[in-house]
Structure formats: C-alpha cells, structure tokens
Specification:
Elements (H helix, E strand, L loop, with lengths): L19 H8 L33 E2 L5 E4 L3 E5 L8 E6 L4 E2 L8 E7 L2 E2 L8 E6 L5 E6 L6 E11 L2 E10 L3 E11 L6 E8 L3 E6 L7 E5 L2 H7 L14 E2 L3 E10 L4 E6 L5 E7 L8 E11 L4 E12 L3 H12 L1
Length: 332
C-alpha cells in the first residue's frame, strides 16, 4: 500500500486553472443563442437566480441532436450527445489535441442503489429530458423504463475553462435507505495511471497509485460506516457484480488519472460529506480507465430531497501538491 507516484515535487507549481487568458478570449466568441426545443430532448429556457454560477464561465449550447456542445477555449466536446445520458463525450484538450473521454463518457450517474437493491443495470441506459439554463448550465432528468421510488436529476455547469461542476439531486417518493448515486467517468487511452487520495497509516495523506497487487477493483471508503454500505450486498447483484478490494480510508474524496504522453491530469472530486467512497480499477494500459465517486450514501425519507456535488478538472504538468491544494480550496 505504500506505492507512490514518483513524480517529483520539484515540478514547478502552477495555477490549477490553465489557459485563462486564451479561454477568456475564446469565451467572447461563444454563442449565447438559446433554443426552445431540440429533437429527442426537451430544452426549456429558464431563469436561474442565486445559484452561485460564475458569471464569466463558459456555457453549453443546444445541439440539434438532443445534446449540447461546448468550447471553453481549452476543452471542447459534447454533453449527452444524441440525447444519451453519457455525460461529457468527444472531449478534446485543445492546446495538446489530446482526447480525454472514453466511449462511455465522463461524469454521469451509472449504478443507482438503495441498500442492497439496485435499480436496473445502469442509469446511463435510461431516457433523459433536459433544459438549458440561462447561465449556460444544463439540467438533466432521468426517466427509467420501470417504476422507481425516486426522481433523479443533475445540473452540469462550467466553473471555468478547465473545470466542470455537477450537482446531483434525488427526491424520494418512498423511503430510500442508504441511497447511492455511483457517478462514473471513463477516460481515453493513455490515462492508464489512477491515484486515490488516501490516509495511509504509515505515511499519512497521499495520492496512492492503484497497483495490480492491491486487487483488480479498488475502493477507498470514507470510514467504517462506508465499508458497511459497500458490503451490504449492493455489489453482489447480477449482472456484473464487483468484489472491491478496500484501500486505506480517504484523506479526501479525490481521484486522478494521469496521461503519460501529454502530462495531462484528469481529476475528479467531491466534498467529503457528499461522497462516501472513491474507486478505480488498478493501473493498466488496456481495458477500464475509469474513476468513480459514490455519492450520498444516506437515508432519504419519503418526500425528502438529498443533494451531492462533484467536480471534474483537467490540467497539464500538475504535481500532487497542486491537485491536493486545489481540492482543499474546493472543499473550503
């Protein structure tokens, strides 16, 4: 468990947000047009007041296939292309030309659990409706093809040219014990090296590289209560059960994938209160190049609401200290 990323801390520290000047110039060319309807997806103009969005942030723009296009000046791609609930797809880092997203996309709800019950195979297969917000964000609502005792929605907003915020909301129709939204991100070839921010019993907080010797599927829990949820039967359900190897506890709800060729880092994070576990397969060049955030992990009473936040950010030449400093600023 003491394997560590050998990236030297001598790397020059940089601002985590890259390309600010270039992105600002690019944002002035973004279209502010809004569409009242997009084929295959409901798109409604709405006003958002007091939601804390960055007024200078990039915006999503409605596309004619039911999804949304974005060009932040640093990142470009699509949200829910073709009206499918796959989050960000076709994402390219413009300064390097490096693709970022795998075929199954970034930052989308996948497994949905309540205790030892799983709702279908995955929310990425459910139909969605969406609406474009006046601040350039997008609200998405999931519509499963069977009855479920909840309503699931999320708002996607750009915080800046390299950073996406996702705000997940569930409204309970019936009591939902130990409810979880398993938020998934799948990265492009090259992002083979995963790191999870754990509190190692010997060395303290550090980004731990996921090695094959630790297990095939690795999960770091927030605490012992999180371990109990992970092992309550939810991950034994067919098809595709997973036997998670438990890592040391989280130092924070933070994980990273690094691309050796471009020196890009893809970082996912959430406030500790909103995320009870972080998971990944071990480091490998082929197959899964994924990161997961286990959001919520709490009881939601009938008629009640629960919300969780998550963030994706992309940067080049980032040291571990850069990443953990950004996480501390985010959570504060």
């Amino acid at each position: 468990m003491q394997v560590r990323n050998n990236r030297r801390e001598a790397l020059s520290r940089r601002d985590f947000v890259l390309g600010t000047a270039a992105a600002g110039a690019a944002m002035t060319g973004l279209s502010l047009a809004r569409s009242a309807h997009v084929a295959g997806s409901e798109v409604i103009r709405v006003d958002v007041i007091g939601c804390g969005a960055n007024a200078a942030a990039p915006e999503f723009n409605a596309a004619d296939d039911g999804g949304y296009a974005f060009d932040t000046g640093v990142l470009e791609g699509r949200l829910n292309a073709g009206g499918k609930a796959l989050g960000l797809t076709g994402v390219v880092h413009k300064p390097t030309g490096r693709p970022l997203a795998g075929g199954l996309g970034l930052m989308h709800p996948y497994r949905i659990f309540s205790g030892s019950r799983r709702f279908g195979d995955g929310a990425r297969d459910w139909k969605i409706t969406s609406r474009l917000l006046d601040d350039g964000g997008v609200e998405v609502r999931w519509q499963p093809p069977f009855d479920v005792p909840f309503e699931l929605s999320a708002v996607y907003r750009w915080h800046d040219a390299t950073t996406l915020d996702v705000h997940v909301c569930v409204r309970a129709v019936d009591d939902l014990p130990a409810f979880e939204v398993f938020l998934a991100s799948y990265f492009h070839a090259g992002f083979a090296d995963p790191f999870v921010y754990v509190d190692d019993p010997d060395e303290g907080p550090a980004l731990l590289r996921g090695e094959r010797a630790m297990g095939e599927w690795l999960m770091a829990p927030r605490d012992e209560a999180a371990v109990a949820m992970i092992r309550d039967g939810r991950w034994r359900i067919q098809p595709s059960p997973v036997d998670w190897a438990i890592l040391p506890p989280l130092a924070g709800s933070l994980a990273v994938r690094r691309d050796r060729q471009s020196d890009l880092a893809a970082v996912v994070m959430a406030p500790e209160a909103d995320c009870f576990a972080v998971s990944t397969p071990y480091a490998r060049d082929a197959g899964h190049r994924s990161l997961y955030l286990s959001l919520l992990g709490r009881d939601v009473a009938a008629g009640g609401r629960a919300e969780a936040r998550a963030r994706l950010t992309i940067g080049a030449g980032l040291s571990d200290a850069d990443i953990t400093d950004h996480y501390r600023r985010y959570t504060q």
